[in-house]
Amino acid sequence: MITKLKTTINTILAVALMLFILPMTASAAVPFPGKLSADIVNIEAANIINVSIETWPGFRRNIRIILPHIVVPGQTEDPSECELELGDKALEFTVNFLSEAEGVSVMDMMMEHSASEYAISSIHTNAGTLDNALRRERLVRLNTVAPDTPWCQ
């Protein structure tokens, strides 16, 4: 029950963020170009990571990073138990992947403007990008897959 509630809350958060972010992508910019070293603040969902980065010399700020082009299981209107379990595995994988990483960074974050609290970017580590690792493990899928495609067979 707690797992389903947690996943439901993450689903609502992810959908709300996507409704905010999708319009932003039409006017998105890269106010902080290049590679920026990041410290993980917390992990909200498999595709939403809060990081602390130095955007200007001596000025650190927290930014909510949303991984690009992926959808996490459990974000459908009425997720199946199997889908919720897969969503939990994706979150667990994300936590483990980032805790084992040596060096975390973001590159060319897409933001509405430099003061935005949200950005779209991959999370880069010595083991590759988080979004690619999640796809490789088949814990997420591309956002181009039809939403009514079942997660579990």
Overall 3D geometry? globular
The SSE string, one letter per element, is HEEEEHEEEEHE
What is the averaged pLDDT score?
Answer: 85
CATH class: Mainly Beta
CATH architecture: Beta Barrel
Termini Cα gap: 23 Å
Unreliable stretches (pLDDT < 50, length at least 5) are: 19-26
Main β-sheet, spatial strand arrangement: 6-3-2-1-5-7-8
Any idea what the radius of gyration is? Answer: 15 Å
Tally of structural domains: 1
- What class do helices, strands and sheet pairing give? alpha+beta
Topology summary:
Elements: H1 2-26, E1 35-45, E2 48-56, E3 59-66, E4 70-71, H2 81-99, E5 104-107, E6 118-120, E7 123-125, E8 128-129, H3 130-136, E9 141-142
Report on the structure:
This protein is an alpha+beta fold and 153 residues long. It is built from three helices and nine strands. The strands form two sheets. It has a seven-stranded mixed sheet with strand order 6-3-2-1-5-7-8. Strands 4-9 form a two-stranded antiparallel sheet.
